[in-house]
Fold this protein.
Amino acid sequence: MLRKIRITLAAVFFVCITWLFLDFTGTAYGWLAWMTKLQFLEALLALNVAVIIGLVVVTLVFGRIYCSIICPLGILQDIFGWMGKKAKKNRYSFSKAISWLRYTMLGIMVVAIAAGVGTLFQLLAPYSAFGRIATILLQSLWKMGNNVLATLAEQADSYAFYQVETGLPNSSIVMCIALATLVILVVLAWRNGRTYCNTICPVGTLLSFCSRFSFLKIHFDEGKCRNCSMCSKNCKAACIDYKTHQVDYSRCVVCGNCIESCKFGALSYSISSRKTGGTSQTSPTSSPGIDESKRSFLVTTALMTTAAMAQQKDKVMDGGLAEIQDKVAPKRQTPLAPPGARSLANLEQHCTGCQLCVSECPNQVLRPSGDLMHLMMPTMSYELGYCRPECNRCSQVCPAGAIKPIEKEDKSSTQIGHAVWIKKNCVVLTDGVECGNCARHCPVGAIEMVPSNPNDEESPAVPAVNEARCIGCGSCEYLCPARPYSAIYVEGHEVHKEL
């Protein structure tokens, strides 16, 4: 039953967390955002004391079940390992812990956090690695499937689905990192099970200090053991030495595979070891607690993929008269950090690059940064939408405290940047037309139209920005008709200010 319970709980966590990353409708985060708060490293960075103490206590009682039930990357490893096991059964073997590598990775993580080198600990953090895979790689497939259904629904005069953008601008570097992470994970898990978990992952190394002293552990009954090696050959953590009847509890993730594979009842998950000196000849059928009629099963979760191709258009036309150009992101001297981040420094110190805020942003404002100094951190840009004052979803889902919870009322008075007008791009002056989009749509009234020539009241009206009032939401930049570069854009502030 241990293995079945573990698989059931792991399946629930994996499906729910994956859905949270894939969902673009805002349905999942209200119900499932709490699951992200249980991730160990993110709770540590957010100083979520209750969660940290809870996970430590759970590890001291049950062992490293966090790695096999709560951590989505750990469960993903198990899925790939299960696929490899289908190709070749009884494929694992005991190996000694590579302690120097484990502690080196942990040391790198600690130094990176202390020094504020976000890229390093973002690469090593397990939840962040899974988030990149889910958001950058899988969500695109999810959206493509949605768009196919939207096309079919449109033909049936139904609005049950709607078209969404499938790509993430400026994410090619992060996409390469996500793809490389997936490939490494697949190769390691396919070949050796939990290699990544027990040699590279710093969270696993941290929890291993507690799991050595856990209340419940896997124990040998030496009197029943026939040294058949089946436990070692099915241990994906490579932590069982059947020859000496020893288990490396620092690496054991309490998956239950060893107990199920033992035909002699020599292994148990209990409080204390039951080492008996005799050579018991008890037959498998008479061993108490062993029910050979039970058939093993595995609960697997399939992510929705769609192979259908959406219709491609060479270019979008406006009334068949002119080509509509895509906007190009301006080069900002200071990156824009979302409201709730409080400052770029806070974002750099706490962000693990999990991409959950990116996947949850309903306005497509957040995207992973390709800048080497802020690699994989969320950055804001307004080519596809603007940061609506009534939306605070990113602050509600961030598990690491990089974007702290902010109320909608407070967001409208938080200045993350200010608008800057670029005279040479403004259509009022370049095309001789009336505009005023930026002033009409500014939610805080920070822009007004003034005569371009102060000495001539009849001269074309151009925008004037009140920087003290502007909150940097980007509505002006997004709605500016100038192409490819907006005539007005938002410059970020290193430290946010309450107006």
DSSP finds 21 helices and twelve strands in the chain. The radius of gyration is 28 Å.
